[in-house]
Specification:
Chain lengths: ~150, ~375
């Protein structure tokens, strides 16, 4: 029956992680959107529901939702449910500026890896694993292994 | 009549409370023993088995005391003791007595306490998890079902409206156990349609509780979702049957007001008793089927989880966490939900509910004696 019978993606907070909680939410929703686990138009829980389920302050979730709205990943309308932005650019052809941005980020990763003493072959190995076309669904895998 | 009814009602409530208390340790999540986070296999280890054995032995002694007390009261207490409502206090006292075996078992279980990450099979207590899916009323109760309770209220209102003009200027509003009216009020929209106002109030209360449960703290998993759906539908069934019961009662009273015959009213007491039995037995059957949080519906890996820290659970039963915005959370010892005593809105709502529960009988008593 309806959506109740399909497993929805989950979000998990790590209180040992130095990353602020709102950023953990932002990063996980971005990843889920990038990997297609959250399609454009998918409704998200209300701020109150997510805060209650995670046992955190309502403002933390609100900050995360506003940050995602600023990136045009989330569409927030007054009085309506938050949804993954229906006009998400995910499937559009990438612009030159997008490619430059990713090249810059990869360059930083390379520098960081070399500074930490990783060999280029190890970095390549990690990159192949990270960029595998259909990565395993981390969320369902982690909830199964519990 | 009132005596037999009160004795039977007390016996039913006591029996069901004892059965629930006896079974409860087997109905909660496997990583919780008397509200304490333990290893999922703690119940099958010698120390856990000893705690359970002691708890059930003490519960058996409490049960014997209850039977003895009820038998003595049934034999010797005067009729006024039963008709004046003292028997409700007796039931309350017995239920409080049942807390003693629980508290002893809670204290003993603390020796088996483990850090939550061991108890929940690897998931750290410090990693709260949530489903990214909105929960709505319609996910659990199809919205068109709501037409049924509304239709019952409308039917009651129409049935009363058709007899309003013919009703006498003074109508009976309270009856003794034999069905004879013992209190009257002048006919008005307020008094004649009293049952409809009560029905509307109950509709609001039941729907409000359902909405609070829909929004209460949830753990991911299909078993939890099914648990919620089944219990919310049970609550819906209770709402419909209670409204129908009140509707029938209202029509009976209206007929009594017109004809003066009151024999049918006296059948209400056995009907009430039957209704209480059905509600409690239904809850028991459902609790055994689902377990708390759906712990008997899903695989052990899915359901042996409760990530709330023990330090927020006072005596293993009262959740006090001011940092958690949750209004309702899953009970640790019991089937259903409890309030977050750290949330001021939850506490205010509880106070309002208790005040209503005290004020309504008090007001009706004042009105009757006036």
């Amino acid at each position: 029956m309806s959506q109740q019978d399909t497993e929805p993606p989950v979000i998990r907070l790590d209180e040992i992680n130095p990353l602020p909680k709102y950023l953990q939410i932002v990063e996980q929703i971005r990843t889920l959107v990038a990997e297609g686990a959250l399609a454009p138009g998918t409704p998200l829980p209300s701020v109150r529901q997510l805060a209650s389920d995670l046992g955190i302050n309502v403002n933390t979730v609100l900050t995360a939702y506003h940050a995602l709205e600023a990136e045009e990943i989330l569409l927030l309308r007054h009085g309506a449910r938050a949804v993954i932005h229906p006009r998400l650019r995910r499937l559009a052809a990438p612009q030159a500026a997008d490619i430059d941005h990713i090249r810059m980020l990869l360059g930083r990763v390379r520098t960081d890896a070399l500074l930490r003493g990783l060999s280029l072959s190890l970095l390549q190995e990690l990159a192949v694993a990270a960029f595998r076309p259909s990565p395993p669904d981390q969320n369902s895998a982690s909830s199964e292994s519990d | 009549m009132v005596r037999i009814f009160s004795i039977s009602l007390d016996a039913v409530i006591l029996a069901m409370t004892l059965i629930f208390s006896w079974l409860m340790p087997s109905l909660t999540r496997r990583d919780l023993l008397f509200g304490v986070t333990v290893a999922p296999d703690a119940r099958t280890r010698p120390a856990g088995r000893a705690i359970l054995r002691r708890y059930r032995l003490q519960m058996f002694v409490v049960a014997l005391l209850c039977v003895l007390a009820l038998a003595l009261l049934a034999a010797f207490a005067p009729d006024t003791w039963w008709s004046d409502g003292w028997s409700s206090l007796f039931v309350l006292a017995i239920i409080l007595l049942m807390a003693v075996p629980y508290l002893l078992a809670y204290a003993a279980s603390r020796a088996l306490r483990v850090a939550p990450q061991e108890g929940s099979g690897g998931a750290a207590a410090s990693s709260p998890v949530a489903e990214l899916r909105p929960r709505t009323y319609g996910d659990y109760i199809p919205l068109f079902w709501e037409a049924l309770p509304l239709a019952i209220i409308a039917a009651t209102a129409i049935a009363l409206a058709t007899s309003y003009a013919a009703a006498p200027a003074v109508i009976p509003v309270h009856f003794d156990a034999a069905g004879h009216p013992n209190s009257y009020a002048p006919k008005s929209i307020g008094s004649y349609f009293a049952s409809v106002w009560v029905q509307l109030g109950l509709e609001v209360v039941f729907t409000g509780i359902t909405l609070l449960i829909v929004g209460s703290k949830a753990l991911p998993g299909r078993a939890e979702s099914r648990f919620r759906r089944w219990w919310l539908r049970y609550l819906f069934a209770m709402k419909v049957t209670t409204l129908a019961f009140l509707g029938v009662l209202a029509v009976m009273i209206a007929r009594t007001a017109q004809t003066g015959t009151a024999s049918s009213i006296s059948s209400i007491l056995p009907l009430t008793l039957g209704y209480v039995v059905i509600v409690l037995v239904g809850a028991l059957a459902l609790a055994i089927r689902t377990g708390q949080g759906g712990s008997r519906l899903g695989s052990p890996a899915e359901t042996a989880r409760d990530r709330m820290d023990d330090r927020y659970w006072k005596l293993g039963a009262f959740y006090v966490n001011p940092r958690d915005p949750s209004f309702l959370v899953e009970k640790r010892f019991g089937v259903g939900w409890t309030i977050n005593f750290g949330n001021r809105w939850s506490v205010l709502a509880l106070c309002a509910l208790l005040a209503t529960a005290v004020l309504i009988p008090l007001l009706s008593l004042l009105l009757r004696t006036r």
